[in-house]
Specification:
The structure is a single chain. By secondary structure, the chain is α+β, with helices and mostly antiparallel strands. Helix content is about 30%, strand content about 25%. The chain has nine helices and ten strands. A hairpin with a 4-residue loop joins strand 3 and strand 4. The relative contact order is 0.16.
Length: about 230
């Protein structure tokens, strides 16, 4: 009896701690995940379209797009997430990652492609250089330099040119930068945001011959917040 009573007390306390939270399901890189979130969160409420609230985005997936994006990018805050959208794999019915680009009503990428973004190891110094770069030197290398409304710095151009510059600024090289012709022709975007650099291409950080930090997402069952 005592054990049953203590169990009921524990469950009641746990339920109280999670009061007001909503459970939801999503799929990230083929892994089914379950999260809880605060539906009254201001940024989350602002991000959801009426269609999203009524119908959801992708069948069994019930998590709002921002919840999934937050779970994928626990190292960012919502301001840093602003340049990114979710990449959905229709065939596998799972989110494969996030890319740089405009969002649809569910925070998915308006122009789906194979491109996705990957955080680059050891990129804090590179991010500081990109954030303070006037752009003249980078443009001399044939690179396009833009600033996103969120404050992120976007550098677009060939993989070898961007990879070499980031490596010179302290990002980790995955190997030799004498890339093959296929890499030389590859166009990528480097996004400097929140003290980090994200390389966005069909090959992730590997597309710039840099070492990727690896995919990260919150553990199953976690509470997803904006921080």
């Amino acid at each position: 009896m005592l054990r049953t009573f203590l169990t009921l007390v524990a469950l009641t306390l746990a339920g109280s701690a999670r009061a007001g939270l909503v459970a939801c399901d999503t799929s990230i890189r083929g892994e089914d995940l379950h999260f809880v979130y605060d539906p009254e969160n201001a940024a989350l409420k602002a991000s959801r379209s009426m269609r999203d609230r009524l119908m959801g985005a992708h069948g069994a997936i019930s998590c709002p797009g921002l919840v999934t994006l937050r779970a994928m990018t626990p190292e960012m805050d919502d301001a840093a997430r602003a340049p990114f959208c979710l990449q959905w794999d229709r065939k596998a019915k799972t989110y494969i990652g996030y890319a740089q680009g405009p969002r649809d009503a569910w925070l998915g990428c308006r122009k789906p492609s194979r491109s996705f973004c990957e955080r680059v190891n050891g990129s804090k110094a590179a991010a500081l250089h990109l954030a303070s770069e006037t752009g003249a030197g980078l443009r001399d290398l044939g690179l396009a330099v833009m600033r996103d409304p969120s404050g992120a710095v976007l550098v677009q151009g060939s993989a070898p040119a961007i990879g070499a510059q980031l490596s010179a600024w302290g990002a980790s090289a995955a190997g030799t930068l004498s890339a093959p012709a296929t890499l030389s022709a590859l166009a990528i975007t480097a996004v400097a945001v929140g003290g980090a650099v994200y390389v966005c291409s069909d090959s992730g950080a590997a597309g710039a011959a840099l070492e990727g930090a690896g995919p990260a997402h919150l553990e199953d069952g976690a509470r997803v917040t904006g921080e």
